[in-house]
Specification:
By secondary structure, the protein is of the alpha+beta class. It folds into two domains: 239 residues, Beta-galactosidase, Chain A, domain 5 (Distorted Sandwich), CATH 2.70.98; 389 residues, Alpha/alpha barrel (Glycosyltransferase), CATH 1.50.10.10. The chain contains 14 helices and 28 strands. Strand 1 and strand 2 form a beta hairpin. About 4% of the residues have low confidence.
């Protein structure tokens, strides 16, 4: 399979594997082109996705270019199978990271072991293996040591699969040359590639191999962490991989069986749930916004490239809501523990950061890596995120709404949890009238964004509801009620543009639309049948050349060309906003039943834009291609919410 796009695969031609500590992207050509090691926010080891020459990769692909590739997840799992088909044979590469069963004999293997099995199902096929890591975002040099390997010997599997599996294994050790001052010493472990003999060193940087498999033959490859200079061999690598595969399949099957959704988009909802679980950092319960960094929101040097390997309060709160909607309350409980930790260490002013590291840390300095060219030459490549210190008041509404639902559907809040929540509501009451940077984290000036004000109303409203339902102590309840009502009246007065007939992006930009206001009825701020909201929604549904934000049923978050967001250039449609439109339409269908049909059409079409294994990036461009970091939690959360609520509306209509 030949690469296009000047040496890069399209973003949507990848599947993802992981183990709740880190993840890797596997292309349809059998190449692992992105992996941070050993955790989501560790430096990258493979990063060809951001630099085709320097980034590093681990590919197992047919030697012939006359093959067709297909990729799918094994049923109810995050085990990925890439199949190659040709006239002469059919081969398959199966990729996964181990997830142990409790009490499994492989339970000890919690570090990120990447398992790759190669087999031929029909005929004969030649494969090329290339493994060229590039440590510390391709900044650090490394050593290559090959042990127990006859030089330049290629593996010759026997006619029977068992003989192929028992081929002599050799180990390749790859580690940093710590004399290199650019290396961030100590953050990346030594890694080891266990493989059948025949690996050929290439300039001391990586290894290559060509091998032939016949029908029924199989080889296994294991990329794993190992102590420095360790030389022990596995007794039977094929058996180890088989045991770990069985463990992993049973782990994912057992987990997804807890999903309570039984609606018409079952397969898509379950896949989104599996992806969101895969993006959860098990030690703390935090959820990464995406596993990648610096994938562009627009092709060209527009600067819309960001690092999403952190946990946003906003995204994680929505994730908790999604898990609860699906009956997956263990994950919601895990995230509530994380919320408790960050709430116990608030900022000096009593507020929260908008994002944290996966372990609750606050520091994530934004740096540019000038030595990497970026995906399809879309520089700059950034790590860290300077938005961490932004003031974004919407996060309090999103968090309080999730906490309220957690108390309602999962587990009652404790008194200590209430104390933290009460202090956050007090903070919102004192600060709601400040301008902020908004949900879209603009890099321009602060404004009084309508969506932020709505979420401030939500934060106080949910605090009041908790007091009323749980009889929690609150001496400020009257002040809360007055402030909530003041915010509501202010939005109706200052955000509404009577001349154009829509809720504006901010008090300052009265003539500008923003798709974030589609969330109004979803948050119960306003009924979806309210004339003001209906007018706003219909305005958003107009095409951009008529002043709207919708093209081909895909929704832009705002007009990036006409809006001063501190950046240049255009961007794609925002998948989250498209799902929000579908959900808003379903709620508005009480005024016009045809809107429910429109909502179903939008969901069906959006699912069509998902990639071959049901993954979504942040944005979709005019040609239907994926843009932005991938896969994006926000999009999969919105898919689950829209599917749940639209399906419920359709069932009510059928009664």
């Amino acid at each position: 399979m030949r690469r296009n796009l000047n040496g890069y695969l399209p973003i949507d031609q990848y599947g993802m594997i992981g183990n709740l500590h880190t993840a890797a992207l596997v292309g349809m050509d059998g190449s692992i082109d992105f992996m941070c090691w050993p955790e989501f926010d560790s430096p990258s080891v493979f990063c060809r996705l951001l630099d085709k020459t320097k980034g590093g990769y681990f590919s197992i692909t047919p030697a012939s270019t006359s093959v067709t590739s297909k990729q799918q997840y094994l049923p109810f799992s995050n085990v990925l199978s890439t199949k190659f088909l040709s006239e002469d044979g059919v081969g398959a590469v199966t990729d996964f990271m181990h997830r142990p069963r409790p009490h499994s004999r492989t339970h000890r293997h919690m570090m990120p072991w990447v398992m790759r099995t190669v087999e031929v199902i029909r005929g004969t096929m030649d494969f090329d293996l290339e493994c060229f890591p590039a440590f510390d975002y391709a900044r650090a040099k490394h050593k290559l040591d090959i042990v127990d390997a006859p030089p330049h010997e290629t593996p010759q599997p026997q006619p029977h699969a068992a003989d192929a599996e028992n081929s002599i294994f050799q180990s390749v050790f790859l580690h940093w040359d710590l004399a290199d001052e650019s290396a961030d010493g100590g953050t990346c472990p030594y890694i080891r590639l266990d493989a059948a003999n025949g690996l050929v060193p290439e300039m001391g940087q990586g290894v290559t191999s060509r091998f032939t498999l016949c029908e029924g033959q199989r080889l296994v490859f294991i990329l794993r962490t190992t102590p420095e200079n360790a030389t022990e061999h596995m007794d039977d690598p094929a058996e180890v991989v088989e045991d770990m595969l069985e463990d992993t399949l049973l782990y994912w099957l057992t987990w997804i069986r807890s999903c309570s959704y039984k609606g018409r988009w079952l397969e898509n909802v379950e896949r989104s749930a599996l992806i969101l679980k895969l993006m959860t950092y098990e030690p703390t319960g935090a959820v990464v916004a995406a596993v990648t960094f610096s994938l562009p929101e627009a092709i060209g040097e527009h600067g819309r490239n960001w690092d999403y390997r952190f946990t946003w309060v906003r995204d994680s709160a929505f994730t908790m809501y999604a898990f609860m909607r699906l009956g997956l309350n263990t994950e919601a409980k895990s995230y509530m523990s994380f919320v408790g930790r960050i709430c116990s260490e608030k900022n000096a002013d009593g507020g929260l950061q908008i994002m944290y590291t996966l372990r609750g840390g606050r520091d994530m300095p934004e740096l540019i890596l000038p030595h990497l060219e970026g995906y399809r030459s879309c520089a700059p490549v950034r790590i860290g995120n300077g938005a961490a210190n932004h003031l974004q008041l919407d996060i309090y509404g999103e968090l309080l709404d999730a906490v309220y639902l957690y108390n309602k559907f999962s587990r009652p809040l404790s008194y200590d949890e209430w104390i933290n929540i009460r202090s956050l509501v007090d903070y919102v009451c004192a600060n709601y009238n400040q301008p902020d940077m908004g949900i879209w984290e603009v890099r321009g000036r602060r404004q009084n964004f309508t969506y932020s004000k709505i979420q401030c109303w939500v934060a106080i409203d949910r605090g009041i509801r908790l007091v009323e339902k749980r009889e929690f102590p609150c001496r400020n309840i009257d002040h809360w009620r007055r402030t909530r009502d003041d915010i509501y009246e202010e939005i109706m007065e200052k955000a509404w543009n009577p001349r154009l007939g829509f809720f504006a992006q901010s008090y300052e930009t009265q003539d500008t639309l923003d798709a974030a206001v589609l969330a109004m009825p979803l948050l119960f701020f306003i009924n979806a049948t309210d004339p003001r909201f209906l007018k706003t929604m219909r305005h958003i549904m107009l095409p951009p050349h008529k002043g709207g934000l919708t093209a081909n049923n895909l929704v832009f978050r705002y007009n990036a060309v006409e809006t001063d967001d501190g950046l240049s250039g255009e961007e794609g449609t925002f998948s989250l906003c498209t799902f929000w439109l579908a959900e808003a339409l379903s709620r508005a269908s009480k005024a016009d039943i045809t809107l429910l049909y429109k909502a179903q059409v939008i969901i069906d079409e959006m699912i069509m834009y998902g990639n071959h294994v049901g993954l979504f990036s942040e944005e979709i461009d005019k040609a239907g291609k994926h843009l932005g970091n991938f896969p994006q939690a926000f999009t999969h959360i919105a898919l689950i919410s829209a599917a749940f609520n639209v399906d419920r509306a359709l069932k009510q209509m059928d009664k």
